[in-house]
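Thread: 1-acyl-sn-glycerol-3-phosphate acyltransferase delta, structure

OP (GT): Posting the sequence first so everyone is looking at the same thing. Length is 398 residues per the record. Can we get the structure tokens written out before standup tomorrow? I want them in the notebook alongside the other entries.
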Amino acid sequence: MDPFQLEMQCVLSTGGEHSRKMGLLQLLKSQFICHLIICYVFLVSGLIINLLQLCTLPLWLLSKQLARRVNVRLAYCISSQMVAALEWWSGTECTLYTDPESYPLYGNENAIVVMNHSFEIDFLCGWTFCERFGVLGSSKVLAKKELAYVPVIGWMWYFLEIVFCKRRWEEDRTTVAHSLQNLQDYPENFWFLLFCEGTRLTPKKHQVSMQVAESKGLPKLKYHLLPRTKGFWITVQNLRGTAAAVYDSTLNFRNNETPTLLGILNGKKYHADLYVRRIPLELIPEDEAECAAWLHKLYQEKDSFQEQYTQTGRFPGPIVSPPCRPWSLINWLFWSCLLLYPLGLLLAQLIISGSILTIVTSVALCSAASLGVRWMIGQTEIDKGSNYGNKEVPLNNN
Ligand SMILES: CC/C=C\C/C=C\C/C=C\C/C=C\C/C=C\C/C=C\CCC(=O)SCCNC(=O)CCNC(=O)[C@H](O)C(C)(C)COP(=O)(O)OP(=O)(O)OC[C@H]1O[C@@H](n2cnc3c(N)ncnc32)[C@H](O)[C@@H]1OP(=O)(O)O
Ligand SMILES: CCCCCCCC/C=C\CCCCCCCC(=O)OC[C@@H](O)COP(=O)(O)O
């Protein structure tokens, strides 16, 4: 065998070794026991943190700003675990398309983020960018009220002063405005996320919303639902002087992927692309009707960016990818070490005890907890989504 052949064989065999190792790792990641361990760490650490958040209640009376800062850090311990699962466990890559002049401002000012709502893990990709720009603990969202009752995440949000809405304007107009005003003296930089479409995109909801677009004389959108403008207007009005800009963010995934949280848990790698345009808040009209028209135009532009992505596989503008930071992984490893050691001891004692009753009770408790986490994951699934935006509306109902 000549030296070239020898070298090639070497490369092929190390390559084979590498892909065998990758295959084994992938197999490990798809094992139910691994998912159980990840969910156990998330659930137990989350409940401990929720409890610690509850303990900060007296602090709110003494120093509201200190209580807020403490809660930002506690919240980081929860949300960064999901970011770690996305970045380190599944290896999902997130690429940012944006203009380099705006880049240094990201993370150094308050902003309102407007994003399309078509993917089950869009919020998690959003969190990943928050993490990379150092605003994960403090980031906020206009969320549907139902999410406030989800253990761990929903309870954490209560202490983060997340703005909840019932998606009933008559009630929301005062409560949402009031919650937004509370954020005016927030002590840390935050991004406030608004899914103006108000619900996840499904073919049925798209059809209904395009009927509404037609009845309002608005152009049809191919990739978005018609945006609901009232939440945007009230947010801009109440955060004027607090937020410096709107970050118009358009998200998509390579190869027509439809990513899911279960996919992430199974270690499936996705590739997200996010196109962000920074629009100074002063450019957004104050008048409600003008502001609504501005938002409709923005969604028409977003639709054209999605069209370009579908045609060419890229968004306009240069790629300026923010680096992945180690903190989410460090936090995850910390909680894993802290909680897996007592679990190991408990399991050992259980086996040694040999008591059937104790074993059956433990298995029942574990099953209940995993069903609970499965229900939580279900909250992210579009198939199990709400009926909001599904109702047929008569044409020309304006
Ligand atoms: C550099 C990197 C940059 C960015 C990184 C990206 C992101 C990171 C940022 C932050 C991350 C932070 C947190 C993320 C974590 C988790 C988030 C998870 C999920 C939470 C998301 C949700 O819960 S979405 C659901 C709740 N939110 C919303 O609904 C917001 C949008 N909705 C509104 O604004 C609504 O106006 C409202 C809720 C305020 C009120 O709703 P309501 O239904 O009562 O009212 P509307 O008045 O809007 O509806 C009536 C009008 O709408 C017309 N209509 C009727 N049917 C339809 C239809 N099917 N489609 C469209 N329009 C319809 C109707 O004709 C009325 O029209 P008007 O002309 O009278 O307005
Ligand atoms: C470390 C990894 C841990 C894995 C286990 C994770 C378990 C926790 C799972 C989920 C926590 C709940 C997150 C809630 C975020 C849901 C976001 C969302 O997209 O809400 C939908 C809402 O916009 C619109 O709802 P509809 O489309 O009208 O219905």
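GT: Both are above now. Quick notes for whoever picks this up: The mean pLDDT is 93. The longest helix spans residues 3-29.
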